[in-house]
Amino acid sequence: MDLGVRRPLEPDRRGFLSATFPDWLAATFGRMPADIAPFERAMTHGSQAAANYERLEFLGDRVLGLLVAEWLWELFPNEPEGQLSKRFNALVTGAVCAQVARTIGVRDHLRLGKQARDDGAIDSDNVLGDVMEALIGAWYREAGLDAARIFVRRAWAGRVQSHDKAPQHPKSALQEWAAASGRRPPEYTIIDRSGPGHAPRFTVSVAIGTFASAEATGGNKQEAETAAARALLEKVST
Prior knowledge:
Number of domains: 2
Cofactor: Mg(2+)
Number of strands: 3
Order of helices and strands: HHHHHHHHHEEEH
Subunit structure: Homodimer.
Structural class: mainly alpha
CATH superfamily of the largest domain: Ribonuclease III domain
Helix content: 40-55%
Pfam families: dsrm, Ribonucleas_3_3
Catalytic activity: Endonucleolytic cleavage to 5'-phosphomonoester
CATH topology of the largest domain: Ribonuclease iii, N-terminal Endonuclease Domain, Chain A
Enzyme class: hydrolase
Shape: flat
Largest sheet: 3 strands, antiparallel
CATH class of the largest domain: Mainly Alpha
C-alpha cells in the first residue's frame, strides 16, 4: 500500500479514520511503542467506546504542565514567577494543544462515533486538545519522563520563545485597563450554551459597567471569556 496516497477519511473495522495509524505513531514518537493499546485508547473518544482517552488526558495534562514549567524555568532564568506564569498559561491551553494536535496529524487517526463525527468533533479544540494530552500521557507511561520531555520540546518548538516579553492574558490586560482608566472591573456573563456535550459552544458577554461591552464564542467558558476580553480590549483601545 502506498502510504503517501491520501484516501477518504472512512473508519476501518476498528473505528480509526486511517489504517496507517501504526506508521504515524512510529513517525510521531520516533519508534513503535512496545504496547500500542494505550495509544489506541488515547485516540478514542467517549462516543466510540467506554475505554476512552479521559484517564490518559488527566495524566498527560500534568506531565505537560511539569515539562513546560521546567522548560520555561530553564529558558528565562531572570524572569519572576509572575512572568513565567503568563508564559506558562499561554502554552498549555486547550487551544494550543489542539494546534499541536493538528500540526502532527492527529485528526486523521481519531476514533469517533458516528454522531460525534457528524457533529464536527474531528475538528473540535476540546477534543483535539484532550487527545493531545492523552497522547503525552501514553508516551510518558511507555517511555518515561525524558522521552516525554523530548517529544514536548519538539512538538512545542517555536511556541515557547515566540515572545520577547511574557504575553499578558487578555482578561488580565482588560482588568488592568479598567483600573487604570478609573472604570468598574469587567463582569463576564454566559449568555448562551449550545452544541453537543463533546463539542459545546459558549457565548460570553463582558461589560465594563455601561461604558462598553463585547461578546465572543468559544469551545469552553474560559476560551469564550478570553475571546470576549480580547474583543473588548480592541474596542476600548481604538
